[in-house]
Amino acid sequence: MILILFTGVESFSFSLLIIDSQAADPYIPVRDSLLAELERKGFSEGGILDISLWSLANQEGLAKRAWLTEKDKDYDLIFINGTVAAAQFSSFALNNFRYKFLFGAVTDPVSLNLIKDFSSHPYSNFTGVAYPVQVRERLRFIMAVLPEAKDIGFIYADMSQSRSYRKWLDEILIEEEFQSLNFHFRTVEFVQSEAGHIRMAMLSEKYIIELDPMVDIFLSPNDQMGVQPEYARTIRRLSGKPLIGLGEKDVMEEWGAVMSIFPDLEQMGVQLAGMAEKLLTGTQIGEIIPQWPETGVAFNLKEAERLGITIPEEYLRKAGDKVIR
Predict the structure, then answer these.
(1) Most buried one in 39, 83, 133, 255, CB count within 10 A?
(2) For the sheet containing 295-300, what is the strand order?
(3) β-bridge mates for residue 19, sequence order
(4) CATH superfamily of 135-263+296-324
């Protein structure tokens, strides 16, 4: 009698449901990195991993349709990609431990009640990696690279992640370290569609023109307007002030930002894949502490020179190859 023992993930099959808030950045690169890293770990799509994918176009109605279609299919793991998707799916199944949720690119999972904080084990059926660079880190970056910048224009869409970010700013700006900074806030309507960021950038034009003589810099908002190219291009077209971008592409694809401190989306996917591997192979969700993303910096020296800005050498070294010369 010969007894054959099977070890490793090859002897199992798994099912993964992916819910993207929108078919756009940052969700596509995070998802692509997650799946590439899972494949490297042996979880190949079409092999041992069956994947279903929905993109919600930031629409609540489509989220409900996706939930009603998929909720009885007993997925091994549901990956929720972005704040809109997380808000909707938490309303359907928060604390229903029939479902295991892994979130990525969510601005404020604490306010959504997905987690308590980033140092405690999860109490619900959600864990994952948040999206933003922490606010203090972003403000310190601005103060170090642009020490003369005191008045900051901040135009944001009326989205839940934007409101969370505004709340964080209001709380942090009263701290002694940041009291020299003066934010000028303006809000535009949240347009719910795949191309909504284009309309929101158009709505921001009047505020860019209004704020341009009042501010030293503009700061991209932490929302779907800020993460897409149209807003950065609009700032560059209408303003003579530098833009501090939200993502790597703001600089490296020359959308219009002079510099950016950004969440590393590729590394976020790697972080998420490590969590997904554990969840798929039996680790309980309460054992996996949620994480902040790793960060990077990028500079467009052509834009900096045009605006008379000198970037400190230590930050250019930190940026490595993330520099446009």
Answers:
(1) 83
(2) 182-188, 151-157, 217-219, 243-245, 259-263, 295-300, 323-324
(3) 54, 80
(4) Response regulator (3.40.50.2300)
pTM attached to this predicted model: 0.88
So what CATH class is 9-132+264-294?
A: alpha beta
d(CA 18, CA 157): 25
Q: How far apart are CA 60 and CA 81, in angstroms?
A: 14
For the stretch 140-188, pLDDT in tens is 999 999 999 999 999 999 998 899 999 999 999 999 999 999 999 999 9
What pLDDT is attached to residue 241? 97
The pLDDT tens digits of the residues spanning 89-129 come to: 999 999 999 999 999 999 999 999 999 999 999 999 999 99
For residue 9, pLDDT beyond 70: no
Ranges of CATH 3.40.50.2300 domains, the chain? 9-132+264-294, 135-263+296-324
Measuring CA to CA, which residue among 230, 163, 180 is closest to residue 203? 230
Of 62, 128, 122, give the one whose Cα is nearest residue 274. Answer: 128
How does 186-199 read in b/e, with b if 16+ C-beta sit within 10 Å?
A: bbbebbbeeebbbb
From 109, 117, 110, 113, select the one nearest 94 (Cα to Cα): 113
Taking the C-alpha atoms of residue 311 and residue 314, their distance in angstroms, rounded to an integer, is: 9
Which band of pLDDT confidence, cut at 50, 70 and 90, is reported for residue 10? low
The whole-angstrom separation of Cα 46 and Cα 95 is 30
Name 146's Cβ contacts closer than 8 Å, sequence gap at least 6: 216, 217, 242, 244, 309
